[in-house]
Amino acid sequence: MAALVRCPIISLVIVIVRCYLTHMNKLCRKCDTVKPLTEFHNNKNTKDGKVSNCKPCCIARADAWQKAHPEKAKARKAKWHKENIDQERERLRKYREENPDRVRANYLRWRDAEPNREKEYNAKRYAENKEAKLALNKKWAEKHPERLAAVKAKYRASKLQRTPEWLTQEHHDQIVAKYAERDRLNKETGIEHHVDHILPLQGENVSGLHVPWNLQVITATENHQKSNYY
Predict the structure, then answer these.
(1) Residue whose C-alpha is closest to residue 122's, from 138, 133, 136
(2) Is 56 domain-assigned?
(3) Contact between residue 194 and residue 182 where contact means Cβ atoms under 8 Å apart
(4) pTM of the full structure
(5) What pLDDT digit, counting tens, does each position of 116-134 carry?
C-alpha cells in the first residue's frame, strides 16, 4: 500500500480527487479529514474564506488552551465581554425571546442544583446596588400604580387565605406583637424592619401560613435579599 502511495500516478489521482472534493468540501489539516465547508469557521484572509482546521478541532484546541491557561482565558473572556457588552446583551436578549421555554428550563435546573447560589447572588446584587434598586422600584411604582395596587391586593388576599380559622385569640395577639416589635425596632434603630414570613405565603414550591411561628422580624435589606425563598 505504501508503494502505491509513493507512485506518482497514484499520488496525482489522490490530489485530483481531493481537489474535486474540496470544491464543496475541505480537508482539515489537524484531523486529516475531508468535511463540508460548513464545518469550518470563516476567515476572510484565506483563499477559500475558511480556516484550515475544522470546528471540532478548533474547539478542542481552544479547550486545551483554556485548561492550560485558566487565568489568561478568564482575563481574555472578561476583556471581550467588556468591549462587546452591548452586542452581548443584544444577543442574550434575542436568545431569551426566541427560546423562552429553554431559558426557563435551564434556570430551574440551575436553581434546583444550586439552591443557595441564587440567594447569594441576589443578596450580593442588592447590597451592591441598594440605592439604585430602591430608586428603580420607586420609579416603577410611580409609573405603574395599578400594577402595584394589584400586587398588594394579591398579597392581602393570600394572607387572608393562608390565615387558618383555628387560630386562637392568643395566636392573633402574638401576630400583633410581631408587628409591634417591628415598629419598635424601626423607631429605636432608625433602620427599616419588616415582618417576614419564614415560609413565603406565595412560594413556588411550598407556601407557609400566616401564623405566629412563621413570622420573624428582620431588616428590610434582609427581607429584600431573602425575596420569595426560605
Answers:
(1) 133
(2) no
(3) yes
(4) 0.40
(5) 787 777 777 777 777 887 7
